[in-house]
Amino acid sequence: MLETNRTRTRTLGLRFGRLPTGPLNAITDVAGVRVGHVTRIDGDDIRTGATAILPHGGNLLQDRVPAGLSVFNGHGKMIGATQIVELGEIETPIVLTNTLAAPRAAEAILDWTLARPGNECARSVNPVVGETNDGRLNAIELRALSVAEIRSSIDTTFTGPIDEGCVGAGTGTIALGWKAGIGTSSRHLPEALGGHMLGVLVQSNFPGSACVGGVPIGQLLGIDSLVEHDEPAGSIMIVVATDAPLSDRNLTRLARRTFAGLARTGASFTNGSGDYAIAFSTAESVRRSDTCRADTAPVRVLPNGLVSPLFEAAIEAAEEAVINSLFSAKTMTGRNGLTVGALPVDRVIGILKDRGALDADPAT
To answer: What's the longest Cα–Cα distance across the chain?
Structure first.
């Protein structure tokens, strides 16, 4: 069962932080970034999918992007993490899916990468796969997603607006006691602060007590996933893209800041939570190729003293992306007849109005 007529937060007048968004308020506001979904809803108990993020539309193995990884709580099965930490770069699409589909997602990435012209004889590829466990709504142990289906999420990536909520890797996920899913947001720094674009995409699937715009919605509505379950667990994958020319070290720092935005949403960071953030830069000046020579002109990166506005952008966009994943998701019934309700947007908006937390002139 799915509801209809869900919406994003800004259409209702809710704002997060001080910085303006990009035109789409999505990770695809960063030029060249592409996103694709495959969604699998079958019978009474298959509720899952995959979401692919491409830093650019070229050959990633030959034209890698600098990247950083931050892990707040490591109860997860992320594939490719250690090479990101060691080399500070990403050379494949990033695929998000469910926990038991992660190996097949790696296979899909390998198939896709080795099929690119010039990669046929590659002897090493580091697939990057993030996961959260959708096993409450999805019969995860059946491993319904095939390699071909997951690869289709990569093959069908595109620039432009992104579907949110119960799609792709967010099809069967739950966060803060409500149905959640995929969410995204962006920030565009003013020219005085560098003029850079930053976007965030999340796969929300974590416990806690929801806080929206600084208002403790979970407490006020009596929904608290910490209280509901004896052993609350769940995870989140956060992907950050920016066109700012950052080193992998500062991309790691940027990824780490997203957890401040996650905390603002009411996340409880439990023992069983896997909280991972990946950040990458699409700037031409910092892209990497094995063909580079020692006499190549030095790479120019943003100095430490200029990265603080990007940190603020990452915090704000991460918070808004999570809340968008809740506002966009629909009530879903899955395995064993379990129904997880959508965030009651009308009631939330009423509370936010009473607290003075909405703009008088909502965005369209």
So the answer is: 64
Is-catalytic flag, 186? Answer: no
Q: What is the spatial distance between Cα 346 and Cα 329, in angstroms, rounded to a whole number? A: 14
Domains of the chain: 9-289+301-354 (3.60.70.12)
CA atoms of 129 and 319, how far apart (whole Å): 22
Structure tokens given for 97: 């899916």
338-360: pLDDT as tens digits: 999 999 999 999 999 999 888 75
Spot the catalytic one: 134, 275, 281, 325. 275
Catalytic residue (one of 235, 247, 325, 328): 235
Is the model's pTM score more than 0.90?
yes
- With a pLDDT cut of 70, the percent of the chain lying above it is 92
Question: Could you say which of 186, 209, 247, 273 is catalytic?
Answer: 273
Q: 205 pairs with which residues across the strands?
A: 235
| Assigned token pair, 243 | 């066109």
275 is catalytic: yes
| CA dihedral sign, ordered 248, 249, 250, 253 | positive
Residue 354 among the catalytic residues? no
